[in-house]
């Protein structure tokens, strides 16, 4: 009779499976002016094709507003660096098609993805925010986070 402890733990509930994956994912956090940005990364084996130099990750970001005022995420700037040191700069309005308004003591979560041609790399960036009441603009740092795959001999980041 097989040893049940050696069998993989499968969850029937997709939400429970996602919650467990989120809890076990690498976590990177940074606080700027009472705004906390936390990133969790996930290797996407089903969307990667290592033989074609296509390596895919998802990242989940939580932006927590610890300020006393509401602000709006207007735009973002990313620096994406692959395992060979090649850098791509990406700028755009909002995130995932939205320019969210985040109230005091509230948070905004979203999930996006990245594709590299190398089995590892890293990303970092900046959110450009606006306080609608005062018109004040400010930047919030997105922490540097690594993109590591099982196709890399050793974790570099």
UniProtKB/TrEMBL annotation:
<feature type="domain" description="ApaG">
    <location>
        <begin position="29"/>
        <end position="154"/>
    </location>
</feature>
<dbReference type="Pfam" id="PF04379">
    <property type="entry name" value="DUF525"/>
</dbReference>
<dbReference type="InterPro" id="IPR036767">
    <property type="entry name" value="ApaG_sf"/>
</dbReference>
<protein>
    <recommendedName>
        <fullName>Protein ApaG</fullName>
    </recommendedName>
</protein>
<dbReference type="InterPro" id="IPR007474">
    <property type="entry name" value="ApaG_domain"/>
</dbReference>
<dbReference type="InterPro" id="IPR023065">
    <property type="entry name" value="Uncharacterised_ApaG"/>
</dbReference>
<dbReference type="GO" id="GO:0070987">
    <property type="term" value="P:error-free translesion synthesis"/>
</dbReference>
